[in-house]
Amino acid sequence: MSFPKYDPTKLSELDKKLHLRPFEEAPETKEQVKVVGLHAIDLSQFKEGPEHLPARQKLAKQLETALSTDGFFKIVNHGIPGETLDYLRALMRGSSLSN
């Protein structure tokens, strides 16, 4: 599946209908909070074939550890372009306004 490159300066009629706008990170808090470090699951380590079974087992163990300790993880090196992620964030933000 491919997504159009998100360019906030060129909004289509659909983009306007969905209230798309650039994703903005939340400002950092001034409160003293404990920062949680998420486990990183590196998908570049995933390779198919029987010869790569140990690497896949290692990834599965990392995922199991992340889910059983914190319940959250982040996926890195997944191959999804940044522009696609920006577009999806804009879609997500727009849809939350219309609900």
Low-pLDDT segments = none
Terminal Cα separation, in Å?
Answer: 25 Å
Beta-strand proportion: 5-15%
Label the structural class: mainly alpha
Average pLDDT works out at 80
Count every helix, treating DSSP H or I runs of 4 or more residues as helices. Answer: 3
Whole-number count of domains: 1
Please write the string of helix (H) and strand (E) elements: HEHEH
Q: Which shape, going by the Cα principal axes?
A: flat
* DSSP helix fraction: 25-40%
Main sheet characteristics:
2 strands, parallel
Radius of gyration: 18 Å
Q: Biggest sheet: strands side by side, in what order?
A: 1-2
Number of E-type strands: 2
Question: Care to describe what's here?
Answer:
By secondary structure, the protein is mostly helical. The protein has one domain. The chain contains 3 helices and 2 strands, in the order αβαβα. The protein has a two-stranded parallel ribbon with strand order 1-2. The chain is flat. The relative contact order is 0.25.
Give descriptors for this structure.
99 residues, mainly alpha, two-stranded parallel sheet, 2 strands
Quick synopsis:
The chain is mainly alpha-helical. The protein contains three helices and two strands; from the N terminus they run αβαβα.
